[in-house]
Amino acid sequence: MRERLTVLGIEEMDGIHRQELEMLDALLEAIDNETDETRVTLKFEALLEDMRRHFEYEESLMRGKGFGMYNIHKSDHDKMLSEVRYLLGEWRSRRDRARIKEYFEYEFAFWLPQHIAAMDTVLAEFLRGL
Ligand SMILES: [Fe+2]
Ligand SMILES: [Fe+2]
Fold this sequence. Notes:
The chain is mostly helical and about 130 residues long. The protein has one domain: Four Helix Bundle (Hemerythrin (Met), subunit A) (Up-down Bundle). About 85% of the residues lie in helices and about 0% in strands. The protein is built from 4 helices and no strands. Helix 1 packs antiparallel against helix 2 and helix 2 runs antiparallel to helix 3. The chain is elongated. The N and C termini lie far apart (about 35 Å). The chain binds fe (ii) ion (2 copies). The site of one fe (ii) ion has 6 residues, from helix 3 and helix 4.
């Protein structure tokens, strides 16, 4: 059972998180039901691009505001980006639906709420306190 996303009270960040969850659901739906593998790839690429923009947005906020926990927060972003990039390469060569389904359902779908509850919550508190 997937955890609910923590609402941070900063509209731009909350909107980005809601959108990312929608894109994750769209990918999972495509993995289950889409017969055309190119369409699965498109949803996969769209999620990766959304993650890249999501993380870049938060990192630019942190840099701009002199947030002290920049490195630890960014390294959590980087770790997830490199995992998902690697998995996309693997998907392109092996087309193993069960593999990507398991990853997004059991790794990414847990990582996102946990990252928001831990890292993003601290960032939002910092931004609200400025
Ligand atoms: Fe975030
Ligand atoms: Fe973050």
